[in-house]
Amino acid sequence: MTRTRTRIVGVKTFGIPVSDQSRSLAFYVDKLGLELRVDTMFGQERWIEVAPPGSITTVALVRGPDQVRVGIDTQVRLATDNAEATHAELLALGVDVDEVIRRYPVSMFTVRDPDRNRILIVEEPADR
Length: 128
Fold this sequence. Notes:
Elements lengths: L12 E5 L3 H11 L3 E8 L2 E7 L6 E5 L10 E8 L2 H10 L3 E2 L4 E2 L3 E6 L5 E6 L5
Parallel strand pairs: 1-4, 5-9
Antiparallel strand pairs: 2-3, 3-4, 6-8, 7-8, 8-9
């Protein structure tokens, strides 16, 4: 297998489709604890990015054309240092989370945002 090198050095931003950017911004900041990084107009469209504190990678809350589906399995995994505590905190805040934490090689559970987009919260092992 031949390996091709490029100048790609990391993941900057990934988008999650939302129907109401203001409602989604409140959820991701007030409930999940992400920081607001960007909230500006980009041409005629509002561009919003949020991120976990200290993270380089951001989440864009994308209000796309009407044909953009919301309520998807985003395949996004956010890391936590304690799945039990995070699960309990989110439940107390009224967040739509799985009732039970799944125990695979690591603990994880799913969160659903106001558009029912699914995001996995995964416990990051302490030795990483």
